[in-house]
Automatic annotation (TrEMBL):
PANTHER family: 2-DEHYDRO-3-DEOXY-D-ARABINONATE DEHYDRATASE (PTHR42796:SF7), FUMARYLACETOACETATE HYDROLASE DOMAIN-CONTAINING PROTEIN 2A-RELATED (PTHR42796). InterPro entries: FAH, Fumarylacetoacetase-like_C, Fumarylacetoacetase_C_sf. Belongs to the FAH family. This is Fumarylacetoacetate hydrolase family protein. Keywords: Hydrolase, Metal-binding. It holds the Pfam family FAA_hydrolase. One of its GO terms (biological process) is small molecule metabolic process. One of its GO terms (molecular function) is metal ion binding. Gene3D superfamilies: Fumarylacetoacetase-like, C-terminal domain. It comes from the Bacteria. Residues 169-346 form the Fumarylacetoacetase-like C-terminal domain.
Amino acid sequence: MSGTGLLGCLPEDHLTGHFLGRAMSPDGPCIISIREGRISDLTEIVSTMSGAIERCVFDGGRDLGPVQDGLPAGWHLLSPVDLQCIKACGVTFALSAIERVIEERARGDATKATEIRKQLEQRVGAGIRSVVPGSSQAADLKAALIEDGMWSQYLEVAIGPDAEVFSKAPVLSTVGHGAEIGIRSDSAWNNPEPEIVLIVDSRGNVLGATLGNDVNLRDFEGRSALLLSKAKDNTASCAIGPFIRLFDDTYTMDDVRNANVDLTIRGPDGFVLNGSNDMGQISRDPLDLVAQNLSEHHYPDGFVLFCGTLFAPTQDRNVPGSGFTHQIGDQVAISSDRLGCLENTVTTSRDAPPWEIGIAEFMRGLSARGLIDRI
């Protein structure tokens, strides 16, 4: 990656922020820090990102030079997480709840979506946007929808007391900035999901945030919610990056709550789609999502949490009335002014580079480099 490319994925105020990332060097994956415009290699101090987060090892190491010079020759960015569990919350925005109900009622058939969307917006659009999940007003709306025969499992997690929480991807399987991102080759209705991803240590403390793409297969999940894992967890189907921005005086949880996450898709066919995820419209506070994810679990290496998205594309791409779906070669850019820009190119999970560095291979690599005691 060139220096221009590295500057291009950092936010404009990167000189005032503190960022952590991972990069592949000729020797193996490294932990890097960016602060005050300079890059440092922390790997000789801490050899995993989960370890850096757990022990708050954010400074020191070997100076790699100014950001404008880019990474050393032969290095490229990786996903900025490694041993953390990859968790996600879904249906955290009213609009996305309606779109999930549409998928369910259309049984994954995109051609039926337009009419169902119109009916649902007329019946529940205003109501679902005005209630607090788990409140007495939400319970009243639920009762009314059941009476009308319009209740859905998606509305349950949208306005009920319990959020949807699921495991998005295996440890070490995420891809980073500049990588190909995969959709199933047998999916005909799908879209990106631009989200903020929280970085949480084993004690439940949120230490920072980054960007993510929680690829969504609307046809699979629409046919049955029991296909969620098959729809969500596929090779290269989870992108995170470019860097973790650590919370400090210049960037806090309130910045997450008020963030806009913008999306641009540029297709090889000349198609362009722009969208935005306004975190100010989220139905559940991000810290509530963290608490619900913790629940009765424990994560000794910490976890990262996708917070969900407002974005649900309805713009027709090919056949009128069929909505949006990806094409191979789409360029997807997810950006936020305080977190930078995560860019990926769409391919199929079948054709994406295979995921080969699992936990055993990762540990063997650290051992060969004499870094196993620094995880």
